[in-house]
Write a structure and sequence with these properties.
α6 packs across α7 and α9 packs across α10. Helix content is 46%, strand content 13%. A 5-stranded parallel sheet has the order 3-2-1-8-9. The chain has a 4-stranded antiparallel sheet with strand order 4-5-6-7. Strands 11-10-12 form a 3-stranded mixed sheet. By secondary structure, it is α/β, with parallel strands linked by helices. β1, α1 and β2 form a beta-alpha-beta unit. The chain has 13 helices and 12 strands. It binds 5'-O-(N-(L-cysteinyl)-sulfamoyl)adenosine and zinc ion. 5'-O-(N-(L-cysteinyl)-sulfamoyl)adenosine (5CA) binds next to α1 and β8. 5'-O-(N-(L-cysteinyl)-sulfamoyl)adenosine binds next to α1 and β8.
Length: 373
C-alpha cells in the first residue's frame, strides 16, 4: 500500500489525520488477517507551499520541513497509527527522479518546452493511451481540477494544456539540483510514481489519499509510472478518503479554520476520542468536525472503558466477528462502532456471564480500531 504523505509546511490538521486513520484501519485489518504488509508513505519535502511559507516566515525551507515532519510523526504516534515500513522524502529521491525523467524523454513520453529561459520538461498525457482511467473524470472536471490543484494549463509551449510538469528549470531564488536534465527540481506527481515503483513495483494493492488527490495527482502518478514500467495498472485499487470540514466549512489553510492534532493534544484531548470521533462517520464521506463530535466520542469512550472493566459480559465471539465483518465491508466504521456499542450496553446492564469477554473485546478494539481502552 502506498499512501500519499504530507507536505510539511504546517502542522497536521484533523483532515490529514482522518485520511491517515482510514488507511491505518486498512493496515490493521490486513495485519489482523495475517498478511505481511508493505506500507510506503512519502513526504513532499520540497514544493511551492513549503517554499512560500519559509519565505513568509523568514525560515529555512529544509528546517521548516524537518520540523513539521517530526511533529507529524509525533501526532501519528499519539494517534496510535501503525507506522509505514518506508517513509521516504522527495528530496532524497531526486537522483532516481532525474534518471526516470531522462528515460521518459528518451522514450518520447516527455518533451521539453521551447523556452530558452525556462526549458521545463512535461509529460505527454496521451502517451499511455489510458489517461483518465484512475479518476474517471470528464474533460470539464479535469480542466477545472487541474487549474485549481497546482496545474498550469496556460503555460506556453505545452502540446496539451493538461500535460503535467516533470522537471522545473531553475528559477532565481529557488532551490535546485544540477543534473543532465539541466538545473532544476522535480514536479510533484513523478515523485510519488518513483517512490512507489522503487519500493513496491507496479501492480501493488492500494494507492491511497484524500479525495482531493483523485485528480490530478493520482491520475498523473499512475500515468507516469505506467509509461515508465510499460505495464498497467500502477495500483490495483485507488482509494480516497472524504474531506473533513470544521462546523460545515471545508478545513483549509486559506480559510484559516484548521484544527491541529497537536493543539488538541496540548489541550489534553484523549487521542482515542479523536479516533472515535473520526470513525463515527464513513471514511469516504465528506464530514465536519464539531465540538459535539468530540463530546459524543469522549462519552462513547468512557462507556466502552467502563464496560471492559466489568467482571463479565456477553461472549465476545459474536461482537468481534461483527467488528471484522463491518470493517472488511469498505471500512464501515459507523456499523463497527454500533456493534461495540451494543455489546457495551448489554455489559453495563449486567447481561452475560463470560468473564473472559471484557478483555477479549478490549483486545479486538485495540488491534482493529487502534483504541486503547
Ligand atoms: N504531499 C501531498 C501528497 S503527495 C499532499 O497532498 N499533502 S497534504 O499535506 O496536502 O495532504 C496530506 C494528506 O491529507 C493527503 O492525502 C490529502 O488528500 C489529505 N487531506 C488534506 N486535506 C484534507 C481534509 N480536509 N480532509 C481529509 N483529508 C485531507
Ligand atoms: Zn502523492
Amino acid at each position: 500500500m502506498y499512501v500519499c504523505g504530507i507536505t510539511p509546511y504546517d502542522a497536521t490538521h484533523l483532515g490529514h489525520a482522518a485520511t491517515y486513520l482510514a488507511f491505518d484501519l486498512v493496515h490493521r485489518l490486513w495485519l489482523d488477517a495475517g498478511h505481511e504488509v508493505h506500507y510506503v508513505q512519502n513526504v513532499t519535502d520540497i514544493d511551492d507551499p513549503l517554499l512560500e511559507r519559509a519565505e513568509r516566515d523568514q525560515d529555512d525551507w529544509v528546517v521548516l520541513g524537518m520540523r513539521e515532519t517530526a511533529l507529524f510523526r509525533e501526532d501519528m504516534e499519539a494517534l496510535r497509527v501503525v507506522p509505514p515500513r518506508d517513509f521516504i522524502g522527495a528530496v532524497e529521491s531526486i537522483p532516481r527522479i532525474i534518471e526516470v525523467i531522462g528515460k521518459l524523454l528518451a522514450d518520447g513520453a516527455a518533451y521539453r518546452v521551447d523556452d530558452p529561459e525556462y526549458p521545463d520538461i512535461y509529460f505527454d498525457r496521451s502517451y499511455t493511451g489510458r489517461f483518465g482511467y484512475e479518476s474517471r473524470y470528464d474533460a470539464e472536471q479535469m480542466n477545472r481540477f487541474f487549474a485549481e490543484r497546482g496545474g498550469d494549463p496556460d503555460r506556453p509551449g505545452k502540446r496539451d494544456p493538461l500535460d503535467a510538469l516533470l522537471w522545473r528549470a531553475e528559477r532565481p531564488g529557488e532551490p535546485s539540483w544540477e543534473s543532465e536534465l539541466g538545473t532544476g527540481r522535480p514536479g510533484w506527481h513523478i515523485e510519488c510514481s518513483v517512490i512507489a515503483l522503487d519500493r513496491l513495483g507496479v501492480g501493488f494493492d492500494v494507492q491511497g489519499g484524500g479525495s482531493d488527490l483523485a485528480f490530478p495527482h493520482h491520475e498523473y502518478s499512475a500515468a507516469h509510472a505506467e509509461a515508465l514500467a510499460g505495464q498497467h495498472p500502477f495500483a490495483r485499487h485507488y482509494a480516497h478518503a472524504g474531506m473533513i470540514g470544521l462546523d460545515g466549512a471545508k478545513m483549509s489553510k486559506s480559510k484559516g479554520n484548521l484544527v491541529f492534532v497537536s493543539r488538541l493534544r496540548a489541550a489534553g484531548v484523549d487521542p482515542a476520542a479523536i479516533r472515535l470521533g473520526l470513525f463515527a462517520g464513513h471514511y469516504r464521506q465528506d464530514r465536519s468536525w464539531t465540538d459535539e463530535v468530540l463530546e459524543t466520542a469522549q462519552a462513547r469512550l468512557d462507556r466502552w472503558r467502563d464496560a471492559v472493566r466489568r467482571p463479565s459480559g456477553p461472549a465476545a465471539d459474536d461482537v468481534v466477528a461483527r467488528l471484522r465483518e463491518h470493517l472488511a465491508d469498505d471500512l464501515d466504521t459507523p456499523k463497527a462502532l454500533a456493534a461495540i456499542d451494543a455489546w457495551v450496553e448489554e455489559t453495563l446492564r449486567g447481561d452475560g456471564a463470560d468473564t473472559g469477554a471484557p478483555a477479549q473485546v478490549a483486545a479486538a478494539v485495540d488491534a482493529l480500531l487502534g483504541i486503547d481502552l
